[in-house]
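pasting for ref. prot 1 ->
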Amino acid sequence: MPSLLEALERKYGAKGEVNPCIDDMPVAIFVPKRSPRLSVPTLLVLNDCDIDCAGDACALADKCADVVELDLANNKLTEWQEVFAILEQTPRVRFLNLSFNRLSAQIQAAQALQPKWDSLSHLVLNSTYVGWPSILGLLKSLPALEELHLSLNEYSYVDLSGKEIDEKDRCEACSRLNVDFTEPVHEQLKKLHFSGNPISSWREISKLGYAFPNLETLLVNECPIKTLEPDPCEKCGDANGNKKSHDAFSHLRFLNLNNTGLATWDEVDRLALFPALRSLRVQGWPLWERFESTEHERRLLLVARLPRVRTLNGGGAVPAEERDAAERAFIRYYMEKPEADRPDRYWELVGVHGKLDPLVSVDLRPEKRVQITFTCGDTSEVRTVDVYRTVSDLKTRLERLAGFPASKMRLFYVDQELRDTQGPEEMKYPTKQLYSYNIRSGDEIIIDSKFKHSISVSSTA
């Protein structure tokens, strides 16, 4: 397998030449005098090159002295010693991606502590299976680190305590680690990607907040978190005292909880207590599957419950008009509920807007099922039809009555009130739903074959 240096030379040439020489061509070009290593880009991407080591230190240092972003995802690096050798020869690197390299071997203490890489601010370790002791060592060696990616690493607990861990310290019921710590580990880290890890306890997630006290962005989407309660597992005991879900996240501004296991409105109310939270993603919750409402209605209730959140599920900031409408809709929604079912937010909003009169309920939805006369030649038949069916689906269901396949069929809609002035309207679009024709009971649909070129107007009489 090639070293980083060999992979670099294969891509850019042994002397740093990006383009091969072209012989026997009368071309005059201006070639500036510069070091060959400058042909290596400052943003260097060497994915899927089977790299397993650094290579000759002097040659690598000469070629990579100006590299500031280095992407080595999907290679064969397994030893941290080689990763550190690469970092030593790329002193200006600010961004390093090592995703999908199997780096589960533990970092030795001497390797992690000397030297320190002051320039590296972004480190991506997705699906590397790096262990917590190694992460702790890296954090001590990277004082300028601001963004860390630890997604898809199969973590079921968090341990940045630096203590020896025994399996008996893990709860059999919820898999979390019964080792608590609240000491800061790295105060510069602002953004943490932790998506797709099989961690279910918010108490474990809170350990990340204590370890990184200035954390502003946290992504824990695709994690099977069931509740934001700090300590819901009875088997673990309550060593957390009276701590709340938000206690560890005083500076958190962005939180992604998409596709987690949160299933009650109580979780939304807990999110409302995060003091600095301004942007939130909460799509794909089991709560939305159980809550019968449109997406618009759900958004109104969310906006009303989350007074501090400015952007919800992406997009622009929630405008003042939408928030006002959401809060009034929230009051009216819970006005119809028993008083015991009204959340605290209801009473807060009543204090702001007062008690509102209920809106007049006007159902503008079309009838779901209507009775239509179907005419095919000399045969007529009255059927009940679901107006949410498509034209294509209707044709398939009329094959037996028509006596020929749907692919050979034409349909014409006749409005009972406009039949004498407007005539039949061909239903040309297969994906169009029937209600879009304003179809009502008593109307007629004429079935014709594509082999015919016209319809007798008298057939509509």
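and prot 2 ->
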Amino acid sequence: MGLNSVTQTVLVTTVVTAVTVVGALVYKKWKQIKFPSKWEKVGTVKKLHLYPLKSGHRVELQRAEVTDVGLRQTKDDDSVVLVVYGAKDNEFRTARTYPKMVFIDVAIYDEDHLAIDAPTMRTLYVKIPKREENNTTSVKCWQNERIQGIDCGDEAASWFSRYIIERDTGLRLAYNDANQRRDITKTHQKILNYYKNLGNQSTGLYSDLTSVSLINQHSVNDLNHRIGNSVVAVENFRHNIIVDGPDLEPYDEDTWDWIKVGDDVVLRNVKDCTSI
């Protein structure tokens, strides 16, 4: 499920409530929203996951700050969102083609640097680039959408090239400082025509589309029951919010129009997750 971060506050592992159908709620501008007045308890947030690097390893959280472009670790931290891209074609690289990317860990080292690790590689310390000091680039992402980025330098480029493609050059790393909101109207019009609640306000920084995604643990349990001998973990689907509860049925989340976590966090269901 793809979600809009409608409110901006702290998200913790707590009770989840939902509204199934809210057909009468219509608004002209995103900030002029009439929220549901009645909620039904459906379960709890079981896990919170953050992905600082597109296709990288997850960061498991007990508490997260909700912003309009996704989750971040604390209220005082900037959102750290990175993407690997080709040095020649400026096209993004993901674990869909390079599965070993899922083993790359990104952590905040200090207020100015990130620490990046991967199996067999030395720790890479990357200075968080600033727009006025570093080259900016346009990364070609899903559906050929161009998304801005600030290049992280030659040392990072060499490290990612050696780990992912085992060459000294070929790949580079970009950082998104959230300076510019995405415009998906040119590249995603067919999707926008079908998903009426999806819009520019729904987007994350380098996510394919939405800023937050959610999945129900019972949906994954049902999948495992259907396929038999194999075991698929909920982490395989790379969602940010995993919900669970004794009364939940598989795929219940597909019917939730609005989701409320705790007292303050309200999310809008804008799209089912058809691409992972």
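The chain has a mean pLDDT of 88.
The first strand starts at residue 2 and ends at 5.
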